[in-house]
Every structure is written in C-alpha cells, then in structure tokens.
Amino acid sequence: MIKGANVALGELGEGEVGTVIVGLGWESPTGEGDADVSVLLLGEDGKVRGDTDLYFYNNPSAADGSVQLLGKTPVGEGSEDRISCDLTAVPEDVATVLIAASRYGEVRFDELHAVRLTLSDSGGDPLLCYPVEDPGPVSALIFGELYRRGGAWKFRAVGQGYQGGFAALVTDHGVDIDDDAATETAAAAEVVEGFSGEEPTAAGEADGTAGALGIVPSARPEPESPAAPASVPPQRGADDGAARPARPARPRTAKKKVTRAAVPVKSLAESESWHSARLFPVSALKSDRDREMRATSVLLAVMAQVPEFGRRLTAGFGAPAGRMETFTEVALPHGDSPRRPDGVIRVERAGKLWTALVETKTNGNALRQEQVQAYADIASRRGYEAVITLSNDVALEGSPLVEIRVDRRRRNKVALWHLSWAEVTHQAQMLIRHEGVRNAAHAWLLEELLHYLRHDNSGCHGFQNMGPAWVPVRDGIQDETLCKGDPRALEAVESWERLMRQVSLGLGGELGQRVMPVQRARRGTDAVARRTEMADALCQDGRLTAELRIEGTTGTLGVAVDLRTAKIRTSFDVTAPEQGYPLAWAKRLVRDLAEAPADLHIVTLTEGEGTGPRGTLERLRREPGDLLPRSGERITGFRLSLFKGMGTRRGNTESGFIRSVDDAVSGFHGSVVGPLDRIYGKRRTGARRPTAD
Questions:
Q1: What is the pLDDT of residues 413-452, one digit of tens each?
Q2: Rg over CA atoms, the chain
C-alpha cells in the first residue's frame, strides 16, 4: 500500500475478518534503533473516550480483549512489535483504532530503515504491507488506522509524523499530559548523582514515552458543579498553603495485582528433608510418555484456570480473548485408526469458537514430521485454526522445526505454531514475579506450575543440547581441520542462536524486563543467509558471538565464545560523559564497581574505534589513572569484560557448555551491568556497540 490508500478488510481474506495481527517493524544500521508502540481507541470525534482507550507498555491489553500488545517477535535482521486486534470485541462507539509508535529523546524515525506496517489474519497469513517510505525527522509516527465504514472494517495507510513526539500525538487525540508527574520525575532525577556531575534531563525528555510523561487520557467533559465534592479534599502546597486540584489518575488496573516473592518464606518443617505438598507432583514420573501426559495436562489446566496466563500464551497465535476450555486424551478420526493429539484448546467469544490441537514433547524428544503432518490434516478437515507444538527446542525464523505440506485446495487454513518450554516458563515467571495476577488462587497456581516446570524430573527444561554437530565442530576448530562450507558449522550456528534466545528468556524472567538478541546483518539479508555468513566466520576465526539488548538499558550485553581457547567473554560498554575530566571519570567508574569481581577487565575506548590502556579491576582500584592514554587521545568510553571457562559437554550438565554460557551471562549482569545501570540510569550506559575482540 501507499500513503493515504485504504482497503476493506473483507476484500483481503476469505469472508469476514475477526482478529487481525498488526506488525510494526524497522531496521537499524547500528542494531540499536527501537520505539514504543501505542494504540488509541477513538470515537467519531477523533478523541479517546476515557482512561481505558490508550494502550502502551504499561497498559498492554484491554479488559474486553479488543486490543493486546504482544511484544516483540524476531523477524529478519531485528524484531517486530505485534498487536492483536479482535475487531468483533471493539465497542460499538469506537470508530477508529489508531496504531502509532514513538522514539526516545532526540532520535528520529528517519534514522531507521525499512519502516513498515504489516497486517495478518489470525492464522499468521499476510494480508497487506505498508512501507513508510519517508517518515521524516519525527519522534512519533502514526502508521495506520483500522476504522468502521458502513458496518465493515477498513484499513488506511496514514504515515503521519509528529515532531513534538509522543506528547504531541496523544494530545492531538484528547489525551492530557500529567505535568505534576513529569515535574516529580525530573526532581527525582536531580538528586541522583551523575556519572560526571552534569545536569540530568527530565525522564520525560529522555524517554519520550507514555510512562515517563505520566499521560492521563482525558474523559468526556462533565457539567460544572458549584463546589468540589466533599470526598476530594483540597491539597495544600508545602510552602504557601494554597489549595491545588488533586492530580488526575493515571491509566492502571483498578484492582491490585498479586505477585509472589522470588524468595520463599521460612518453612515450618521440623527437618530440611521434608518436602512441601505439591499440587503437581513429579515423583511418580517414570517414562517419557508419563512426562508428556503430565506436562500437557498441568499446562492446559493452568491456562484454562488463569485467564491472564492462557491469554498470554495464545494471543500471538490469533486466539481471541474469551472463555477458554482445554482437554487431554482426545481421539479424532483419521483413516482406519483414530489419532490422539496430546491436547485441544477451545476459546469461545461472542458465540464463535477458536480451536487448536496441541502436540507435546519433553526431555530431548524431537517432534516427528509425520505426526505433526497428520494433525495438520485433521485440523484442516475438522475446521481447527491451528496446531500448536511444545518441546524443549527453540524455533528460529526461516528454519521451522517441522516441515509440513499445506493442501491449498482446502478452504480451512491451519497455522502451525511452536512454543518452547522455556517460553512457557518465562511467561509464567513474568506474571507471577513481576506483573501479577488479579486473584491470589491464580497466583498460587502459577507458582505451582513454575515449580513443576523447573523440577529435574518434569522434562520441561528448555533447549538443553547443542546437537550432534557441536563436538565435531569444536574439535575441528581446535585441530584447524574445519573447512569453510561444512554443513556442521551451520548446525552449530543454529544451535547457538537457539541458546541465545533461551538465555534471553531466562534473563528477562529474572529481571522482569524484555531481553532480545540483536541480529546484525547487511540490509536485505534473510535469516538463512545471515546464519550462513556466521558459519563461514566460525570456520575462519573459531568464534561465536551475540549481543543481547535489555529493555531499559542503553547498549547491549556482548557474548563471545572462543572455541580455540575454550573461553566465554561477556562485555558491556560504558560511554564517557560529555563533561568533566578523564581522571575523574576513571575514579568514579572504579568506585562504582566496588562490588564487581576483581578479575573484571576494563579497556579504555578512544576516538576512531580505537582502544587504549587496559587492566584488571584489582589493579585499577589502586591506580585508576592507569586507564588514561599516555598519548592524549580522546576517551569515548570504557569496555567492561569478564572471562569464564567454557563447558566441554554438549548438554546442560554441571560442566556443560549451555550451563556455562547461561551462568556467564547471568553472573555478568548481576555483578556488573545491573549495579551500573541502577547507579547511572539508562542515559549513562553503553552507547557504543560491544565487540568480541
């Protein structure tokens, strides 16, 4: 589509379109470009109706299921933000669903490449693509809008930018900015001691996002009353005693959510050998079949009983928000003998059903192509929307775990989706540890599910084996016998990418933040070509590298594995302040790393991508001035690195490679990146890209 064009959704698919998935994507030359997605529900007057009509990262879903922000999904060279819109659930007095995004601070959309909006149906099949050819030097952008005309839904490609940023965009559509919130945020920032003592900017200026600005959607005007209600007493200022109006409420859930502490309370047991009674016991599991049946039943039962959790796992598959029922031990006709999928999910909304078959694997068991193909055929014949597979493996874009044939003669299209057990654990942990649920019993159910999934005997451990090609590749690199083009090198790169995605899920679950691998490649390079280039580089220099972007932290956490030296290096770059003296910078950095390991390596970064003096933290604590270049080059920052021995086994054992990488990343963040980020804030950390030198 081109800017200004519109199209009826009914003309894009077969019949009425109920749920659509909107994708907002872009590419960054540096891999560091990002933006916050927001959705506004507008009435006929083009304004929000009230405080429930704005959805962003702090308010990601509508109670009626009409809008849900699904977060980022890896696509091509980066990631894509996806939004689920259930058009059948949009209230009748909403005329337009506005899709927008905003960038942080001084960065603009014209610094990004391939800015685009895509629209897909609930099965993931693409309906349209709108490339925003020239977004311009704006920090907020309306990509498009879904709107009603004559009782049907249409889409319009808008492409309108706002130089005034997010504040200008939302104000234009009836949203008020809470000035008190922005003022308090700025005042709090002033008391935080800066890296070099420079004046910090207000959080609203740094972020340019809804959370920092303290947005408050304006409600419809009410008739004026002669006096203020008695239930709202006037607030008095601290200095002059003058009355001021009460601050309007921010968008938030009215009912307090329940979360569980990460550290359990002290037990009343007489002996440490006693085991707490569990809702989902694992002691009786003796075979892989037992594990698969128990894992399926446990997961599907919790999904049905905890709506927030069930919706979180199925929204990305095109399922609507509605009443969910789940089943196990089902039998479906298929030729001479019935097929028995591990489970079935059925979601009802407004008299319509969304259904999916579920196939589960635990431990190292792989999905079988012929089995998944049979379920896809059954689903197509019986009108199911999807087949969902669960296993410990991690699916990669461009490399499906199972190849199936699609009979295009059939009217009913079936989508094939995959979930890793690591993703299930991550979503449960995000809810129970960080975001909370509305019911205490639901919180307990999620806690029991987490305990079950993490138990050694459950078989739901996530990606846990680098595959049969790993040892030959490692030995071939050490012996210098691995040749460029060896297909085993590509298998090792795919396993490495799966591992990085799982490490990101684990770290994100612990932090309560989104963590995503950064995929750097030349523009226009697809996922398979990018992995082929990485495989050739692995054969040449014997290293695997990755970068992890942590939400709220500027910069990336670098991970590099050198198979020749059997070392894992984790690194992070800290940018030098614009003001102050280099010696003061070095002293402050060393002082703020007081709790970091003594063997932390610090390298001075100089202008022109160069490096200067380096040393361990143990030595630099005595002489921080040793970080200053003797030749007087301009310092641009400091690179912090830790080195750890690499596990020698393929699997996730105590001495395994997977365990050693996971420990290296979590340990480095806990002892170095996390403490620095808490001290300096995201405006003062790592603007430079870490390298794996």
A1: 888 999 999 999 999 999 988 888 888 899 999 999 999 9
A2: 27
At residue 436, φ and ψ (nearest 5 deg) are 85, 160
Burial pattern 540-571, b for ≥16 Cβ within 10 A else e, equals eebbbbbbbbbbebbbbbbbbbbbeeeebbbb
Residue showing tokens 């509508």: 62
CA distances (Å), origin 343, targets 12, 335, 377, 387: 32, 20, 16, 10
As a whole number of angstroms, the distance between CA 125 and CA 144 comes to 19
Tokens for 75? Answer: 């696509």
CA–CA gap between residue 82 and residue 316 (Å, rounded): 8
What is the CB neighbour count within 10 angstroms for residue 129? 14
Q: Specify the residue for token string 């003796």.
A: 286
pTM: 0.69
Q: Where would I find the beta strands (DSSP E) of 400-492? A: 415-420
Q: What span, in angstroms and rounded, lies between the C-alpha atoms of 341 and 287? A: 18
Q: How far apart are CA 678 and CA 195, in angstroms?
A: 12
3-class SS of residue 585: helix
392 and 651 Cβ atoms separated by less than 8 Å: no
Name the H helices within 459-526.
470-479, 487-511
Report yes or no: 513 and 550 within 8 Å, Cβ to Cβ. Answer: yes
CA dist 498 and 493 (Å) reads 9
Question: What one-character-per-residue DSSP string does 229-246 give?
Answer: -TTSPPEE-SSS--EEPP
- The 10s digit of each residue's pLDDT in 46-92 is 999 886 789 987 788 887 778 988 887 766 666 688 999 988 889 99
| Long-range contact pairs involving 53-57 (C-beta distance under 8 Å, separation at least 24) | 53/94, 53/217, 54/170, 54/175, 54/210, 54/215, 54/217, 54/251, 56/209, 56/210, 56/211, 57/209, 57/210, 57/211
Q: What is the pLDDT of residues 383-421, one digit of tens each?
A: 899 999 999 999 887 777 888 776 665 556 888 999 999
51 — phi, psi (to 5°)? -80, 5
Q: What is the DSSP string of 622-637?
A: T-GGGGS-TT-PPEEE
Give the position of tokens 């921080």.
Answer: 624
Residue linked to tokens 């209230």: 91
What pLDDT, on a 0 to 100 scale, did the predictor assign at position 686? 38
Among 674, 613, 599, smallest CA distance to 643 is for 599
Q: How far apart are CA 219 and CA 51, in angstroms?
A: 6
d(CA 128, CA 198): 48
C-alpha–C-alpha distance, residues 658 and 624, integer Å: 35
Coil vs helix vs strand at 113: strand
3-state secondary structure of 150: coil
